[in-house]
Automatic annotation (TrEMBL):
EC number(s) on file: 1.7.3.3
Function: Catalyzes the oxidation of uric acid to 5-hydroxyisourate, which is further processed to form (S)-allantoin.
Residues the entry annotates as binding urate: 57-58, 152, 169, 212, 238
Name assigned to this protein: Uricase
Residues bound to O2: 57, 238
InterPro entries: Uricase
Organism: Actinomadura luteofluorescens
PANTHER family for this protein: URICASE (PTHR42874)
Taxonomic placement: Bacteria, Bacillati, Actinomycetota, Actinomycetes, Streptosporangiales
């Protein structure tokens, strides 16, 4: 009995590329998850460890970012074809390239550079009965992004600080918000829609010096506009978007191509409340 190598493929899975295109103050974003798998004459690497035919998966990832800068991102079918043809045409050992792309849809909020991601959002409610009734409404996984209008600088530094200050970055978060009602008879659906809308408008309209500052503005907006609500608690993961260094490929990157990291993430949490909010110790538990 002989043992032989069967079908195989390799590549970089789930490269998260975000491409921002500017038309004056109006931005468009394309947000992709790209997985490349190459196959062909790859026997030697498996059988002897000879890597001569292996285009590194790291290179495949770089190609996704560089192509996003060089060619832009139109229909994902075109972007997939571009990548697949590149790998098969440029690498003699690669007979076949599989490129799978998932695109996350975004809709515009207010202004030219604020977006809310399609789908995934969940409305929540937490009610306590008994002697002291309480109602907490909320939402989770409301994913929003500003493609400009966000800075972060002037922060404390110590011997472990490497973060560069920035005056223009992407600010994105998946909002979890819970807000406590003063009473138990609000028009719940209208109140919910208005609170959600206030959160979105505050996120979009705040020129942000930190996600903490944006958090406070979001809570404040709800409390200012909705007298039936007395306390807002927000949990905002900072969904980091890192500008990709394309210089090794002779390309500039003027805030156009970003790597959307999923972890670790900053987690910014806080409560904003009115000073006359009735005490309700158990309401959020
Ligand atoms: O808005 C931010 N707040 C922080 O506390 C922080 N920390 C960090 O590294 N980046 C950011 N961004």
């Amino acid at each position: 009995m002989a043992i032989v190598l069967g079908p195989n493929r390799y590549g970089k899975a789930e490269t998260r590329v975000v491409r921002v295109t500017r038309d004056g103050g109006t931005h468009r974003i394309r947000d992709l998850n790209v997985s490349v798998a190459l196959s062909g004459a790859m026997d030697e690497v498996h059988l002897t460890g000879d890597n001569a035919a292996v285009l590194p998966t790291d290179t495949q990832k770089n190609t996704v970012f560089a192509f996003a800068r060089e060619h832009g991102i139109g229909a994902i079918e075109d972007f997939g074809l571009l990548l697949a043809r590149h790998f098969t045409a440029s690498q003699p050992a690669v007979a076949h390239a599989r490129v799978e792309i998932r695109e996350y849809g975004w809709r515009r909020i207010a202004g030219g550079h604020s977006f809310v991601r399609d789908g995934g959002e969940v409305r929540t409610a937490l009610v306590h009965g008994g002697e002291a009734e309480s109602v907490v409404s909320g939402l989770t996984d409301l994913v929003v992004l500003n493609s400009t209008g966000s800075e972060f600088h002037g922060f404390a530094r110590d011997g472990y600080t490497t973060l560069e200050p920035t005056d223009d970055r992407i600010l994105a978060t998946a909002v979890t918000a819970r807000w406590r009602h003063r009473g138990t008879t609000a028009g719940w659906d209208d109140s919910y829609a208005a609170a959600r809308d206030g959160l979105l408008r505050a996120f979009a309209g705040t020129h942000s010096l930190s996600l903490q500052q944006t958090l406070y503005q979001m809570g404040r907006r709800v409390l200012t506009e909705r007298p039936e609500i007395c306390e807002v608690r927000l949990s905002l993961p900072n969904k980091h978007h890192f500008l990709v260094d394309l210089e090794p490929f002779g390309l500039d990157n003027d805030n156009e191509v970003y790597f959307a990291a999923d972890r670790p993430y900053g987690l910014i949490e806080g409560t904003v409340l009115t000073d006359d909010a009735p005490a309700a110790p158990a309401a959020f538990d």
